[in-house]
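Aim 2, interim progress. The first record below pairs a target sequence with its structure tokens.
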Amino acid sequence: MAEVKTYDAKDIAVIVGGVYLTGFGEDLVTVAKDEENWSVSVGAQGDVVRSKVNNPLGTITVTLQISSPQCSFLDKLANGGTLVPVSVVYNGTPKETNTATQAFLKKPADREYGSEAGEREYEFQCLDLAMN
């Protein structure tokens, strides 16, 4: 029988400019490179060349509940265009660390009001994303 693994969302920490985010929404956080690490081209006679893509850009998307105390902090960062370090750390197994020493919020979160508390989504443009 295969060994059972356990995932716990509480093993994830998101730190923005030294501030730990709390009050996450259901989707929590997504980390993605903006481009693939390699590109391939094929010549007219079938010769293949693989090229390293050195684009360090990436996107970190954080979803917070509307009641998160960090929503106003992130909105201020977005309105100011402030460059901040961002880290997403998964302390489960296997441990994963995603970091950008320079990132900025593309815009303040969209605001939706309804009969139930909603969520706020913040999208960081990372200028030097490292996924380890």
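The second target in this work package is listed in the same format:
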Amino acid sequence: MPGRNFLFVPGPTNVPDRILRAMHRAMEDHRSPDFPKLAAPVLRDLKKIFKTADGQAFIFPASGTGAWEAALCNTLSPGDRVLAARFGMFSQLWIDMAQRLGLTVDILETEWGEGAPIDRYAEALAADKAHAIKAVLFTHNETATGVTSDVAGMRTALDDAKHPALLAVDGVSSIGSIDFRMDDWGVDLAVTGSQKGFMLPAGLGILGVSQKALSKYESAKLNRVFFDLGDMTKQNATGYFPYTPSLPLLYGLRESIDLLLEEGLDNVFARHHRLAEGTRAAVKAWGLELCARQPKWYSDTVSAVMVPAGINGAEVIDIAYRRYDLALGAGLARMAGRLFRIGHLGDLNELMLLGGLAGAEMAMRDAGVKIEPGSGVAAAEEYWRRTAPKLEQRELPARAPEPQAAAPKARAAVPA
């Protein structure tokens, strides 16, 4: 099909041309004397994205799932209790991993479409007088439902209970796109991956670790080999890795960090919020609802759009892909067929997103959803026009005068 595939899943995201060029490298010796000139600054500058002064950043040739595992197996022991809420596919997957690693998980069952239940976390922590709970697992942005939860509120609950449990946060679809403050919020383990806000291909599991979490390493007894932070720490101290890193992805990550810092993280977050608000205006104009049940939980990186009764969300996604070359996110697990997801994160602007919204409109209409043609696109346009940054006044060149029409020539006299 001619033209470009319109990628509007919530990860992987579009890779900017600058990053693609940076990754286009001949292979190098990752044991060479020059390699630390690449690796050491990347590890240092990742801390700026996490917003941590005291924490340490680690990079694994893996995915966000690998960083999940590294967070758990380097800080906990078999049988340790952890506290987690289940309110979407990705919170469920982290719980499943913890259980399979041999941890005991106290699960707070929560309706999908709601945020993490901080009040129930607080009750459980207050009741744990013996401090048997060793870690809290907290999903910042639940991609399956388009829900963002309050990490700062979770830290307040821990502090109010005077509870020493580690705060482990899944920020895979938030870090680099939504405000995240590792030090200010007392996050001990911050998990993310390369293919979302960092605008890279999948392949890097990235982990931020506080000094408190690092202090648990020696006493932690869960098995670990590939994800051993001790091996990483020793090699990273000299600018190397304990095994073969992905050279192209490291060069791409260097460029990604530069892009984020050049735009300014606060500007990145504001851009994502504005794009998300335009998308939400479109959903409202369609007469549809988001899976997220309250505005306080609306995600700025993905909108999960509920389809009307009698419509299969999977059909909308299939039509969008096969007929219009548009990739939309699917409903997962218990939300399968009930919704489709529009990812609006990473390297993105208004005109790009308008294309995704237009394609979603056409696919919905083809699938039988009764919406007014162009209604969502128009609503998003008006929101973005209304909230666009004001243009700097500049003097425009004077308009050239209209050319004067030539006077008609006099006709010669015709003899009678």
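The first strand starts at residue 6 and ends at 8. This observation will shape the mutagenesis plan for the next reporting period.
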